[in-house]
Structures are given as C-alpha cells and as structure tokens.
Design a protein that fits this description.
Elements (H helix, E strand, L loop, with lengths): L1 E3 L1 H15 L13 E4 L5 H7 L5 E4 L2 E4 L2 E3 L5 E3 L5 E4 L13 E2 L14 H10 L4 E4 L6 E2 L2 E8 L4 E6 L1 E2 L2 E8 L4 E6 L5 E3 L2 E3 L4 E6 L9 E9 L2 E3 L3 E6 L1 E7 L2 E3 L3 E6 L7 E7 L2 E3 L17 E6 L1 E2 L2 E3 L2 E3 L9 E5 L12 E3 L2 E3 L6 E3 L8 E3 L2 E2 L2 E2 L7
Parallel strand pairs: 1-8, 2-3, 3-6, 4-7, 5-9, 6-11, 7-11, 9-12, 10-13, 11-14, 12-15, 14-16, 14-17, 15-18, 16-19, 17-20, 18-21, 19-22, 20-23, 21-24, 22-25, 23-26, 24-27, 25-28, 25-29, 26-30, 27-31, 29-32, 30-33, 31-34, 32-35, 33-36, 34-37
Antiparallel strand pairs: 1-2
Amino acid sequence: MRTRHLNSLAAVTVVTASALGLAAVPTAASGHRDHVVHPGESIQGAVDAAEPGDTIVLLPGTYRESVLIKTPGLTLRGAGERTVIRPPAAKPAKSSKPAKSTKPARTTKGAEAAKGPRAANACAAGGNGICVIGTKSNTVDDVRIRALSVSGFSKSGIWASWTDGLSVRRVTASKNGTWGIAQERSTRGDFRRNTATANGDAGIFVANSVSEEGGATDTGGTLVVDNSVTGNRIGVTARRVRNMVIDGNTMTGNCSGVFVVGDESKPAAGAITISGNRILKNNKFCAATPRLSAIQGSGIVLTGSERTIVRSNVIRDNVGSTPLSGGILLFKSFVGALNTDNEISRNLVRGNKPADLANRDTAGKGNTFVSNTCGTSVPAGMCAE
C-alpha cells in the first residue's frame, strides 16, 4: 500500500481520483494526507498509520476484513458500489503488506490508535464490518464514512459507540445479520443518502445503549435524512433516545417503516421529528421475537414515546393483520410505558390496513391527530377527509 503525500503528488492524485470517480483530495495546505489502499492490501494498516484529518481512499474492489476506527477526524472513502467490504474468507489469508510512506510516520496525538490485526479482530469479533469506537471519557469525533458498500457481516455493517459527529453518506449496507448502520451512546450523527437493504433487524438503528437499561439519551440532533431503506425487519429504529430527526427517507418492503421505542425509564424516549418520508408497502412478514410481537404492514409505530412530531409524511398501502399493523399507530409499550403529547398532523395516510390511523394506547394522554388525510381510523373520527 502506498501513502501519497499531497505536498509532492497532489496533481497526480487529483487526476487519479477524478478518473476513478472519487471525491476531491485535500489541498496541500491542509497538511493532511491521503492513504490509498488497493484490493488485497490492509485497510486497517492504513487506518493505524493515519492521523486526525487524514483520508483513507479505497480503490474499487472487494476487501475482506473488518475495520476499527479510533482516530478522530478520519475519513474513510470508497468509490461507491465498486468498493465492497465483506467478512474475511473462511480460511486465514496471508498477512497484508505493511504500509509504505514517502514521508516519516508521525505520532498520532489525541487518538486512540489501534494496533493492526488486533484492532481489526476486535471489530470482527463483534461481527461488524466497520466500527467507530470511543469511550465515555474520550469520544471519537468527526469521523466520515463515504461511498462504499458493506455487506454480509453477522452483526452490523457499520457500528458506532461513544462517537460525536459521525457522518455516514452514500453507503450501501446490505445483508448484515442485525443492523445495517447502527449507533449507540453517541451524539450528532448524520446518516444521509445511504441505502440499507435486507438487514436482519433495522436498516438504520439509533439507541441509547444496546447492553444496558436506562432512560433515553439526547442524541444532540442526530439526522437520518434522504436514505433508501428496503427489505429489512424495520426501516429505522429510534430506541430510548431523544432529540433526533428522521426526514425525507423512502422506506418500502420492510416489515415496518419506523419504530420509536421507549420504556418506563426516565427521561422518556421522544422529542423526535418524523417528517417528509415516503413509507410505502412495508408488508414483509416478520415473526415474533422475545421482545416484540410479529410485525407486518406497519408504517410508523410509536410506543412509549413523548412529544414526537409525525408530520407531512406519505404513508400508503401498509397492510397486515398483526397487533402492530396499520399506517400510523400509537401502541402501549410492552413494559407499560404510555405515549404522551405526541402530534400526528398533515400526513397523507391511505390504503393501510386494518386502519390508516390507530390509537391503541387509550391510556396515553395529550396525543393529537390533526389535519391528516386518511380513509379509516381507530377510533373513528380522526381523519380530516
């Protein structure tokens, strides 16, 4: 693997990147470096050699490894769907060639740099493709993942914990065992223009913690925007979190489009805006699990949520016969948490069965249904026309 330094090869690198359809490389004045990785070379080796602000450029091809990022400010960039990260082959491969550099390596300051194979194995041991991992006292900030595919991992395509400002764009996460793109214990995530398809649970998953119970955490305004989410169990799950936007996404062919999940812990989940999404024909059947009943034909489900706004979405033709089926559904959580003060307004909700709108949380307080265009509701009378 060659490390290209911008102060000596900027022109050549720009031409090469342009020819391959890659994003523009940083300018020489920035002092940051591009680390170019070819198929068969080690992504992890390039990550370990990088400093905050550097870019790892993955050329088109298939890379069979898991990658752990603990360096803040790092960019991992592929060439779109031509760059694919998959699990390692069943038989151990030969050791990848070490990174070469035309410039003496500099010590990474302020980063928790991982150590080659050990770091990669730590991510792989969890069944994940790309991991961005910090700690409570030292989050990994401002990592960017761009223009690549991650597929076939037993847990998650992309997994993040204790991060701030993680940005994932133009990534395809498919056929991963649990989540396509997942974040916990993190703030200000930006998940935009991605494709998440055929993952075992949620295409995009945001949670307070997957290993501990507790009240909802503030995500600092995490954005899930303009993604295509198809063929998963659930399109987007927001579990025990607050202060988040789910906007402009297309969700189809899942068992459910959106789940907002809270429980009896305080603070409650909610203060989420779900707007401008197209949630169509999420009619795949998913069997019950120990935590959740069977799902089919669910558009948006709020359970144990407070002060969530569901506004100006198009929700059509979601059809099923499970307790969670319907266009927009308020459902009492399985641990008894109520929905309170949620606003459902100005949505186009048609052709969903058994109902376009359903308030099945009759003990919940302050929930309003206003100016929704729909045909059927439970109880009757909640449709504007």
